[in-house]
Write a structure and sequence with these properties.
Blueprint: E1 2-7, E2 12-19, E3 23-31, H1 33-37, H2 44-66, E4 75-81, H3 85-102, E5 106-110, H4 111-117, E6 130-135, E7 140-147, E8 150-156, H5 162-172, H6 179-187, H7 211-224, H8 236-239, H9 242-271, E9 275-279, H10 286-295, E10 300-301, H11 312-324
Parallel strand pairs: 1-4, 4-5, 6-9, 9-10
Antiparallel strand pairs: 1-2, 2-3, 6-7, 7-8
Amino acid sequence: MKVLGIESSCDETSAAVIEDGTSLLSNVVATSLDLHAQFGGVVPEIAARSHIEYITPVIEQSLEQAGCDWPDIDAIAVTRGPGLGGSLLVGTLAARTLAILKNKPLYGINHVQAHVAAAFIEPNKPTFPLLALIVSGGHSQLVYFKSFFDYKLLGQTQDDAVGEAFDKVAKILGLPYPGGPSIGKEALEGNRLAYKFPKAKLEGKYDFSFSGLKTAVLRAAQAEIGEDYSFPSHKLSECLSEAQKADFAASFEHIAVETLLDKLTSAAEEYSPAWIVIAGGVAANQYLRTTAEERLSTPVIYPEFKLCTDNGAMIAAAGYFAHQENQTTVDPFALEIQPSLSM
C-alpha cells in the first residue's frame, strides 16, 4: 500500500510517499526557515505564504522521486493539527482537492502522534507496546502505546515545550535560531556543571515544565555580569564572554535533558515497554541520545535525523497505521483543521 503524506503544520512544506508504512520511497521538504531566522522565531504569515508557493511543486517532486503516478497511490494522509492555522489550511486544502480529483481515501493525521510513526520507517523495526517521548519546538509529551491508536497520554508540558526553551535560551545567549542545533554546538565547548539550574517539581508525575528553567538561565546570566532582573535580555549576549556562553549552553542543555530522562526512566520502570521511541525535532540532539543510551535499559530507537523534524514521511506512515487499524477516513469536502488538536 502506497500512501502520499502531506505536512504543513509550521514552516516546513513536505510531501512523501511511504509503502506499507515502513519503506521510504520519497520525502521532499521545502523550508522557510531562513526567512524566519532574522526574527528569532516562526512568523505565521510568512510561513503560510511560503506553503502556498511550495505545496504544488513539493507534491509533484515527491511523486516523481518515488517513481509513482496517481494510479499508484492508494491513499492520502495530511496533517490536520496541531499547528499554525494558516499553514494547516494550505496543506489540508491541497490534500482535500487531490482526494476529490483523484478519488483517493483521505486520512486526517495528528502531527504530534505522527512523529512516533517516523520511528517505524526502515531500517527501524520497533514493536508494541512502546513508550514514546515526543519532544519538539511546540510539544513535550510522554505517551504509552499499546498500538498506534490505542495509547495513554502520561504527561505533557504545562508551559514551554523543551524545544521552545532551547530557542529562548539561545536568544538570550545571542545564538542563531533555531536554538536546538546552536545550543548543542555551543555546549560542546562548555562545562555542564558550571551553573546549577533547577528541575521543576509538578503535581503530575510525568508532566514537564521548562519555563522556570529558561528564567533561571536569564537570571543567572544577569547576575553573572553584575546586573539585576531589570537588565534587558537582548543585551546580555554583548556582555557575556564566549566561555560564559558555552557554560550557560552546556548547563542548560544538561538540566533540560536530565528533566526529560528522569520522567522517561520512571515511566519505563512502571510500564515495562518493549521499546522506547524518542521522536520530534529535539530527538536529533546528540547529548539527549548519548545520555538516554547511558541511563535506559530498555532498547531506545529514534527516527533517522532527517525524519526528526517535520516531514511528510511521518504523516504518510501514520496514514498507513490509520488504514491498518481501521480508522475512519475523512470526507474531503468536510475536513477541518484543528490548530489546537491534542492527543
